[in-house]
Amino acid sequence: MTRSPVFETFRYAAILLALAITLVPIIWMTSMAFKPVSEWQATGADLTWIPKRPTFENFRYLFGQSETTLIVALERTATKPILASLLSAGFGTLIAMGAGTAAAYGLSRFGSGGNLPLALIQLRLFPPMAVMIPVMMMWAFLSLMDTWWGLALIYGIVTLPFAFWLMKTFFDEMPREIEEAALVEGCTRLRVFLKITLPMMRAPLASATLFVFILNWSDYLIALLLTTRQWVTIPVYMSSLASSMTGQLYGAKAALGLIAAVPPVILGIMIQRHLVRGLTFGALKQ
Amino acid sequence: MAEITFRNVTKRYGDTLAVDDTSFTVADNEFFCLFGPPLSGKTTILRLILGLEVPDEGDILIDGRSVTRIGPAARNIAMVFQNLALFPHMTAEQNIRFPLAERRMAEAQIRARLADAAGKLHIGHILHKFPAQLSGGERQRVAIARALVRDPVAYLMDDPISALDARLREEARVELKRMQREAGRTLIYVTHDQEEAMSVADRMAILEHGRIRQVGAPVALYDGPASAYVAGLLGSPAINLLPPGLLPGARGDAVQVGVRPEDVTVTPGEGAVVTGVEPLGGYTVLTIEAEGQTLRAMLRGQPAYAPGQNVAIGADPGRMHFFGPGGDRLAG
Labelling A64: which of A90, A113, B54, B300 has CA 20 to 30 A away? Predict the structure, then answer.
């Protein structure tokens, strides 16, 4: 099929627009992260796309190595918020994927927990805000306030429905004969799951894990309500990068944003191979 | 080395009766075919034998011992699934090794068995490939090798060669029959192809709606169908089921008279008209209309009949099958 030049022009215009919408903020953030104060505070004609005097000053500032060019000294460095984000999002993802995968497998294969799908959907219908006040009280009672493990627990609970629904779809799609073949060949149920089902589910597990991790990683609201000082996460910490004297510290925020983008990107690259792979790739006759 | 017996087995899925109060025995070393239209319960019977399904009523015995409550792993039966069910994340070799490795067999022994099975099925050159990289026929061979490689008491196969084209299928079924003889094991084989069933089976069971209608040697079923249903399933072209008045010599109390196309005699004359001629070389199939009925006749060679020609039809009463009300064969 040959397309008309008009159509092609529109097509490329649409692609360029989409690219601009997604990439320009990232480019701007990257550029800003390497600008000295004078440049990221610049307005109007002084705006530059590429830093004239690139510097690591913003990064040094975040980690308390600054030579005071940013006027205010930091109350605390970015090290611990980064750690808090990694721990809470990481373990939260583990909880959601572990419980979600187990529940999805049980429901898909044995029909156990018949009301679970609906119950989990209802959990998602609540805006998190609606339940956060009770959760705060419970967490306070359980001494889980301002801890990364308390945060990981609520992240695991909030993203559990996503993990469950994604994995259930994948389990439902897997032909039951493959597991039955393994049963007939002498496996126990547990061995079937470990030797056949899980390896076949690598690709779906990888993509669901990435999805859930990004949800947890980018949370702001829950962390804002459940942490105060010790274990604030990157998004909460980022909002504190301002002062009455200097206003918003955009350079430092951009540098932190750049750092925050690293884990999802690394995770994405690590599992990229699985993301593009098909599910059953030719086990069956069809 | 296994005799498999069903004793009044019933299996329901919700309101559907998949297997309805069924009893039969498959003898040791027998090539036994389950044959019937789709959804007649063939696959469910295999799943019951494997232990993947538990019967709602009745008992399943292997060598006289009830296995009704025993899990699939302990029954030691090998299965080739209809969709083959190869493990997609394992190479052909790993697939075939799997049943042996699961039974903790010694590596040397595994290798010997693997080489043996690969040799029998001519798949030595594709062992390193993944199922996705294999053709349909190759996958089929790998699946059969995975079943052959261990030493089960019986093999079950659910239409394993249906994906092959007609020519390869003919070769494959001869090969299967030979392998079953060499292995000296019971083989229960599901197929929906009557020619395939008749050509390989020692005995076959004809199913309808979860019930076994008749069991016997293929030729015995062909020559002595217990009902019009069984008669209609076997033979190609299908048997002519006609009202009793159409052919001279039919019993008066019959509701239907069955005549195989090869038993219809056609002579120049009156009473019927040829409406179609299919010359097949060795045989010619005529479609004939008589008194508003359509029937088929299969004649040897290439007789010179043309559409529109008037003919007389008949049949040897000794070759006719008489069915009473409800389609059951009349006694005598």
Answer: A90
pLDDT in tens, B245-272: 888 877 778 888 999 999 999 988 888 9
Total number of domains in chain B: 2
- pLDDT higher than 90, residue A73: no
Please indicate whether, in this complex, the C-beta atoms of B52 and A184 are within 8 angstroms of each other: yes
Beta-carbon separation of B85 and A283 below 8 A: yes
State which of B212, B231, B250 marks the end of a domain.
B231
Contact B85 A175 (CB under 8 A): yes
| Domain, as residue range, for B24 | 4-231
Question: Is-contact B66 A161, C-beta < 8 A?
Answer: no
ipTM confidence score: 0.82
Nearest chain A Cα distance for residue B88, angstroms:
5
Provide DSSP, B153-194.
SEEEEESTTTTS-HHHHHHHHHHHHHHHHHHT-EEEEEES-H
Model confidence pLDDT, tens digit, residues A140-197: 999 999 999 999 999 999 899 889 988 988 898 888 899 999 999 888 889 999 999 9
Choose from B47, B70, B87 for mutation: most chain A CBs within 10 A: B87
Tokens standing for residue A285: 């006759």
Whole-model pTM: value is 0.78
**Cβ density class B125-157: b for 16+ within 10 Å, e for less:** ebbebbbeebebebbbbbbbbbbbbbebbbbbb
Region A238-242 average pLDDT:
85
Closest residue in chain A to residue B158, using alpha carbons only: A177
Look at residues A124, A139, A284 and name the one whose alpha carbon lies nearest to residue A223.
Answer: A139
pLDDT of residue A67: 63
In a domain, B226, yes or no: yes
pLDDT digits (tens, 9 = 90+) for A90-118: 999 999 999 999 999 989 888 777 777 77
B152, B278: one domain: no
Q: Helix A148-173 crosses helix A202-217 at what angle (to 10 degrees)? A: 150
* Closest in A185, A191, A282 to B99, CB measured: A185
Domain check: are B108 and B159 in the same one?
Answer: yes
How far apart CA B182 and CA B180 sit, in angstroms, is: 5
Three-state SS string over A46-81 comes to HCCCCCCCCCCHHHHHHCCCCCCCCCCCCCCCCHHH
| CB-neighbour burial class of residue A1 (10 A; exposed 0-12, middle 13-18, buried 19+) | exposed
**Closest residue on chain A to B73 (Cα):** A186
Nearest by CB to residue B88, choosing from A186, A188, A282, is A282
